[in-house]
């Protein structure tokens, strides 16, 4: 089979079985009916062949476009065996991200700013690259696929696509333009066209080789505390509160920088009503998936109702949108925020909308709670461990808010002489009612996320909801 279109059509028949096993595939909750190739671009001809595909995946009630990079060889070497997808016409086709020869080609295309068919490989202004390095998949639990090139670059290939702007790329660009020091510099992009509109396919960034994920640091600290016989969180060697304080400062600074770059505005009662309704709708959807949430529903509804009838105004701006300890990296110079894409489950068009910065604060507060309680997920009856986990969570949540409040208190006016949004917010704990509702909303999202992806962790957000609905708006 030599014709590329025939090869791709035959390959597409093998994709319904392969897609659900991929970590980044967002539709694992229902069977894949069919996969239809929308665009095929030959990036490298011969043996190996490198194909860029945009396919439409059809499931019960949805059709969504995904990006695939496919390698094809006459003979599949042993080290690529695990990446095999199908062998249309006897020619093995596989996930190209695992083939160093093919990933090197992507970096070269970026370095040379190539145009191939409708694909544009471009560098940000003033950037030049050292090509030649081979990329390897980062191997993280991801919604997308990232390739790391030596100690220098990381290329994120977005998997589920939507035409129009990319929140991740645009927010990185805006933050870099105002000199934000809490992000990895954006270096380049890959764009194409989908349904007649531009679409962002990839983002190249500076790779922070010395970085440690916040989640790894926080859970190590929890582990050390839980292993101690009788020390408290502030006495244990691996105390995290200093880092949590610095992280609060970093998040507030990124909010101030996003405001400086893209501005803020006041959201009125109608938008708050809409936000409250959105929270209530999500609760109803998740209740259908996870009936165990039922006993807490009345108290959660009450909290969301209170948002629905708030009179405002509440200040909104561009935010991170899915902030948690897995989205922050600690380098020797301080904390960085990564992945400004918003919640993976949200429709892509909705992810660029402005929100209250308290949404990110709520995400991070949830994450401290997660870090503490996931460690004892299989020992729910151990009161001593539960008390200690709670102590760790409270101490670090509070240090994070202190850090945020310190930056908010000293925030300089924006270009227009106006105070930035974070100065209007001040200490996040002043907004207990809204923050509580945002935390509950995030926990509801997490319940759906865990139910679909990691059922063994479902009890973590469920237990948080139980605590939150008993304790109320308490930090
Ligand atoms: N600039 C970077 N430097 C070092 N590691 C990074 C960088 N960006 C991302 N990572 C690592 O890659 C992982 C996945 O990146 P992320 O942007 O969160 O992808 P996804 O959108 O697929 O969730 C992160 O958890 C982090 O460990
Ligand atoms: O990093 P992603 O953008 O893919 O975010 C999704 O996956 C996260 C898990 O990897 C999930 O985060 C939840 O688990 C984290 C620990 O693994 C915890 O730190 C977070 O607080 C918790 O929300 C995230 O919600 C989801 O969108």
From TrEMBL:
Keyword check for Ribonucleoprotein:
no
**What superkingdom heads the lineage?**
Bacteria
Pathway recorded for this protein: Glycan biosynthesis; glycogen biosynthesis
UniProt xrefs under Gene3D superfamilies: 3.90.1200.10
The GO annotation for biological process reads: glycogen biosynthetic process
EC number assigned by the record: 2.7.1.175
Question: Which InterPro entries does the record associate with it?
Answer: Kinase-like_dom_sf, Mak_N_cap
Pfam families registered for this protein in UniProt: Mak_N_cap (PF18085)
Which residues belong to any copy of the Maltokinase N-terminal cap domain? 18-99
**The entry's keywords:** ATP-binding, Carbohydrate metabolism, Glycogen biosynthesis, Glycogen metabolism, Kinase, Nucleotide-binding, Transferase
Gene Ontology molecular function: ATP binding; kinase activity
Kindly report, in one word, the top-level EC class recorded for this enzyme.
transferase
Catalytic reaction(s) noted: D-maltose + ATP = alpha-maltose 1-phosphate + ADP + H(+)
Family from the record: Belongs to the aminoglycoside phosphotransferase family.
Summary of subunit composition and partner proteins: Monomer.
Give the protein's recorded name: Maltokinase
Lineage per the UniProt record: Bacteria, Bacillati, Actinomycetota, Actinomycetes, Pseudonocardiales
